[in-house]
Amino acid sequence: MDYRIIRAGESRSFPKDHPFFANAAETGEAVVIVGADAGAKFRELSERERYTAVLSELDMECLGVHTGESHGTEGSSVLGFARFRLGDGEPSNLVELVRQPRTLDTAIGAARKIFDGAGLQVALCGDFVGRMVDRLVRPYYNAVLRRLDEGLATADDMDTTLRLGLGYPEGPVALLERTGLHHHFDVTQSLFEALGEAAYAPARRARVAKERQRRKTSPPGS
Amino acid sequence: MTAIKTVGVAGSGTMGAGIAIVAARAGFRTIAYDSRQEALDHARRQTEGFFAKSIERKKLSREQVDRIMSGLSGTTCIADMEPCDIVIEAVFEELKVKHELFTQLNRVCPGHTIFASNTSTLSITEIAAGSGRAERFVGMHFCLPAQLMKLVEMSPGIGTDAGCFEEAWNFCVAMGQQPVRTKDNPGFILNYFLVPFNNDAIRLVETGVAGPAEIDRAVKAGLGYPMGPLELLDLVGLDTHLRVAEALYASTHDPRAAAPALVRRMIAAGHLGRKTGRGFYEYQGSAMFGG
To answer: What is the pTM (predicted TM-score) of this model?
Structure first.
């Protein structure tokens, strides 16, 4: 599957070189818009219907923000995507591919080929806030941070238990501190606002980390 | 070092059978008790299958397996638990059922016998209170599949004697397991976090966010977890998950701990997971995990 890439600023999914870029061509049946401003570039793209697939990188927003929605019948050859990445950590191998109710199967097939060809793993989901992984892990991380405050066990004991008991590669406390607790605040706060569920409300430790980050990056006296 | 020689395991379901393997494999004389002969027979067949795979994978020799199996017996008569130095209970997650079992065991077993519960959600102190020997009662929560997983969450109840807890801890180490001390809290560490996480994954399926295979792939590729939540639920069994979730919800009232409606619908349809050949996925065969 030939595809061309349109760059639209810094990308959270592809912050550095990747076979995904090397595999791209000057022209192709598909177009992939990569970067923080992908949504704006997507809206500027003319003759979208001539492509088998148009893939636009997403941040926290839904794809419908860019395509528009009506009657639950939206869907075309356009898909959203994002590589899952925790805070300052390296992007994972997972591409969450976002479809709409009537997205064409040919577009989904093309998107899978493009990402598979770059050695990435694709998981397809509907156009929901938080997609799959953030929806699942943010309440869990909040619960861990709360229980740490409540003295269920030490951070090391909780991490050890979850690593040994479930085979997780890293305990949640160590993972969040390594990748930036303040980033967890940003994501879970955004989900809390969108979903209104208490489980997404940022845990105290995430709030503290966010406040400290704000003070560190704000000019003196602000 | 441990003075424990003979181990009783009460309940021959998936967990009980796995715990019996752990104890027998470590060289303890092990007596499995279940009121149902068919449960004992099924566990025996699964245990033989598990050790056959251990031989096949050259982890154990035929002689070693013969020795292990000769030290592992089953009984439907609770009086046969009399020689046990420790009895680990792995029966239904219902306080009444556990109290009835320990009341009987308390009549049969000598005063030095330690009672341990593999409960994943109930309070150790509450179970101990109905055992007749709260001071010699500990929580020992093994992970599924017990025959492969090293971690054991160990928790004292309010009335547990410190020396008894240490004895149980040393026994756990002698079995080759890795104990971790937790407070006597609903779900301890593992299930407190895992059950709501798995319920959230079921809710993603239920609300059409994504299909089971997509969710499992996302969790494995995105987080590096060895199993996706829906694969794990199929392994655990949805009926077991429902019981654990109900017990956890009853003690925490955390909305995330409440089992989604889809769980009950799948159970009603007989889609319990691997053991019925269909859960979130379809399966062939019901061989015991690992070897």
So the answer is: 0.86
**Chain A residues contacting B via beta carbons under 8 Å:** 84, 92-94, 96, 121-126, 128, 131-133, 135-137, 139-140, 143-144, 147, 151-153, 157-158, 160-162, 164-170, 198-199
Domain made up of A133-215: CATH architecture = Orthogonal Bundle (1.10)
Burial of A160 (0-12, 13-18, 19+ CB in 10 A): middle
User: What is the complex's ipTM, to 2 decimals?
Assistant: 0.96
Based on C-alpha coordinates, what's the Rg of chain A?
Answer: 19
Domains, in order of start, for chain B: 6-181 (3.40.50.720), 192-276 (1.10.1040.10)
Of 3.20.20.70, 3.40.50.1240, 1.20.120.140, 3.40.50.720, which CATH number belongs to A3-125? 3.40.50.720
Q: How far is CA B190 from CA A184, A199, B143, B257, in A?
A: 22, 18, 9, 13
What residue ranges of chain A are covered by domains with CATH 1.10.1040.50? 133-215
Q: What pLDDT, in 10s, does the model give residues B50-109?
A: 999 999 999 999 999 999 999 999 999 999 999 999 999 999 888 999 999 999 999 999
A188 in helix, strand or coil? helix
Question: What is the distance in angstroms between the Cα of A88 and the nearest Cα belonging to chain B?
Answer: 14
What integer is the mean pLDDT of A98-105? Answer: 98
